[in-house]
Structures are given as structure tokens and as C-alpha cells.
Inverse folding.
């Protein structure tokens, strides 16, 4: 079988992502696992494990959990206390399993579920939930990354995330280039300025692209590729990486392409090789 990336088989990668169960996203000497089955999560993780690659976990690690679906896993900004409590319990479960698998870190979203908090409520809920997430991280000695999402009606500015996270050294930020572009399009904001502001907190990056809400709805995560970078509505992933590369701490790169019939292995691989060359050069210059 052909190799999408060292130790990553494209056919297996394709089939798992199509099923959206027990699948993973590859990176540089790393891979990120998510949405395993409750009775097969160990086997599903170990089937792609490799001693030369580092594992991270994208919460929720197991779906369903106590008969709950993924949309109930990360509702840390929901005004409903029961919803927030359930999400914290589920995150604790993900972190516990990740610890057993010697994962490098766990990543989660901050979403608001069906609730619609006011701006003041949202900031308060974010502060309280991040404090609870930090306690989970400390209790398992497991770093947790919080993904930057800009879909909340009020809690979406970089400054809000910085304020919520900056006092917790065991928490980091995951910058998602596709979601960053959607945030910029929705709110008419500058994604490159946002990346610059967030840079000191960024410890991982999810790489994919999209040109519009319409394309996002129809095709999901478009694989990164130099042929579309920074044109026709696509964000410049190259410029984002140039912005965050000077950071003096390690940053984990994860590729998050959607998989469907119109996505070709060659296109994904070309984009990954382009990013690897780019990132390697940027890191070399940053260390000069």
C-alpha cells in the first residue's frame, strides 16, 4: 500500500476518516487520535501506534460516552451547569485514557452547546471552565490544549482566549488555520494579526483550509496545498506559519484534511511535503 506519510497508510487513513470512528490525523513524527469506540479504543489506538511517533488525543477520545454524542463533549460555555459538568466529566475520562496511552497532550474545544450566554456570562464561564480544565490537567500531569474557535457570538476575540489561558502554564492553545479563516470571514477580522497576538500561547496547530462557508459546508476541511494558499478566499497557511515560527517553544503540527471522493492522496501528500519543507526552514531560521 502507498504511504501518505512515514508509517501512515493512506487506505487505512481514508477508511477510518470516512467512518469517523477510531480515526486519526497525522503530523510531523506525531499523530492525533479521536472518536474511538467505547469497547475498542485501546485496540484502535494501538493499531496505528508506532514507537517513533508521538501520540496526542483530541477530546472526545471515546464516542459515544454514556450514550452521549460528540456535540455534548465540550460545552464548557453553556449556561446550563449540568451540560458543563457533563463535559468536564467526559474530558476527565478522555485525559485518563490518554494518560494510559502515554499521550503527549489532550486537545479540547470550548463550545456553548444549545445555550446562549451573554458576553459577560461567556467570559465568566470561560474563566471558570478553564480553571476546571487546568485542575484536570494538573491531576493527571497531562498538558491540555484548547482550540481557538471563533463561532461563539461573543467569546471569540484573541484577547478573550489570552485572558482565559495566560495564567495556566499547563494549558496551551491550538491554532486551527481553517477555523481561524472562518472566524476572520464571519467577523471581518485580520487572521494574521490574530495569529500574532495568540502566538505566545500556541503549542499545536491544525492545518487545513477553506475559501468560504459554502465550501466548508460542502467539502469540510480542504487539504493545505501551495496551489491554493492565500488566494480566492483561502488563508495563507505559509504566512500563518511564518508568524508563529519565532516562538521559543515547541509547536506540534497536525494535518486535518477531510476525506471524501474528491480528495486525492497526491494532493494531500504534496501539501504535507510543502509544509514540512516550509516549517523546517522557518524553524532553522528561528534558531539562528
Amino acid at each position: 500500500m502507498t504511504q501518505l506519510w512515514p508509517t501512515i497508510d493512506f487506505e487505512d487513513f481514508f477508511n477510518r476518516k470516512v467512518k469517523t470512528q477510531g480515526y486519526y490525523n497525522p503530523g510531523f513524527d506525531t499523530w492525533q487520535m479521536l472518536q474511538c469506540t467505547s469497547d475498542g479504543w485501546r485496540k484502535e489506538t494501538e493499531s496505528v501506534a508506532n514507537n517513533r511517533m508521538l501520540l496526542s488525543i483530541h477530546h472526545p477520545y471515546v464516542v459515544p460516552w454514556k450514550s452521549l454524542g460528540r456535540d455534548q463533549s465540550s460545552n464548557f460555555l453553556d449556561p446550563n451547569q449540568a451540560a458543563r459538568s457533563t463535559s468536564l466529566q467526559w474530558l476527565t475520562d478522555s485525559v485518563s485514557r490518554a494518560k494510559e496511552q502515554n499521550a503527549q497532550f489532550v486537545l479540547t474545544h470550548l463550545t456553548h452547546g444549545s445555550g446562549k450566554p451573554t458576553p459577560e456570562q461567556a467570559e465568566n464561564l470561560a474563566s471558570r471552565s478553564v480553571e476546571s480544565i487546568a485542575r484536570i490537567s494538573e491531576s493527571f500531569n497531562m498538558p491540555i490544549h484548547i482550540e481557538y474557535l471563533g463561532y461563539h457570538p461573543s467569546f471569540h476575540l484573541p484577547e478573550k482566549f489570552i485572558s482565559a489561558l495566560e495564567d495556566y502554564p499547563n494549558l496551551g492553545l491550538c491554532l486551527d488555520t481553517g477555523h481561524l479563516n472562518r472566524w476572520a470571514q464571519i467577523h471581518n477580522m485580520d487572521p494574521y494579526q490574530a495569529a500574532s497576538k495568540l502566538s505566545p500561547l500556541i503549542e499545536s496547530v491544525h492545518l487545513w483550509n477553506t475559501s468560504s462557508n459554502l465550501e466548508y459546508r460542502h467539502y469540510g476541511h480542504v487539504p493545505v496545498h501551495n496551489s491554493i494558499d492565500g488566494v480566492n478566499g483561502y488563508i495563507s497557511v505559509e504566512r500563518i506559519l511564518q508568524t508563529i515560527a519565532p516562538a521559543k517553544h515547541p509547536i506540534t503540527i497536525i494535518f486535518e484534511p477531510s476525506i471524501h471522493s474528491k480528495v486525492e492522496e497526491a494532493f494531500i501528500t504534496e501539501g504535507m511535503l510543502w509544509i514540512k519543507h516550509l516549517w523546517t526552514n522557518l524553524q532553522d531560521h528561528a534558531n539562528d
